[in-house]
Amino acid sequence: MNLYKKFALTALIVLFATFQGASQEVAYVNSLVVINSMPETKVAQQQLDQFRQVLNQEYDSKVNAFQTKLAQAQQKASSGGYTVAQQKEVEATLGKEEQQLRDLETSSVKKIKDKENSLYQPIYNKANTAIADVAKASGFKIVLDSSAGIVLYAEASTDITQRVIDKLK
């Protein structure tokens, strides 16, 4: 039995032992279904895609310019067009530009992640508030997330996913 299965089994035993007789106090929700049902998610994804596209275009443009310079330098070097000093200078310049491209790529990945967080955090907050509201209104004290693989078994009557989606409408 692998470690994950042992952990899941242990967690399940602890949950059932802890909540024996309190089954009506525990519910589950599929937060991915909830979040994907929200209109804000589609808008956020479109904005993120546009942002990513702009950064990718900028990066691709710089990569193409670098590749052109590199090809020209290689052609000139192979035909003996550089002195040793010029060759070293060209190599140093191209090395710096290559490092700038790596830095730009790293910066772009961070910008995309930051943009994703800023776009999706309000959506997560709204979904969590709706989940809490539905849980309180229904008398549930604990809500598990089935999209995280935490729920190994549950009766359909304890699934509050649709109620949360309805609350968000």
UniProtKB/TrEMBL annotation:
GO cellular-component terms in the record?
A: cytosol
Look up the coiled coil feature and give its residue ranges.
56-107
What molecular function does GO assign, one term?
unfolded protein binding
Q: Name one Pfam family in it.
A: OmpH
Lineage, top-rank taxon, reads Bacteria
Arranged from A to Z, the UniProt key words for this protein are:
Coiled coil, Signal
Q: Which GO terms describe its biological process?
A: protein stabilization
UniProt keyword annotation of Transport present:
no
InterPro entries xref list: Chaperone_Skp (IPR005632), Skp_dom_sf (IPR024930)
Question: SUPFAM superfamilies from the xrefs?
Answer: OmpH-like
Where in the sequence is the signal peptide annotated?
A: 1-22
Protein family (similarity comment):
Belongs to the Skp family.
- The entry's protein name is Periplasmic chaperone for outer membrane proteins Skp
Its taxonomic placement starts with: Bacteria, Pseudomonadati, Bacteroidota, Flavobacteriia, Flavobacteriales
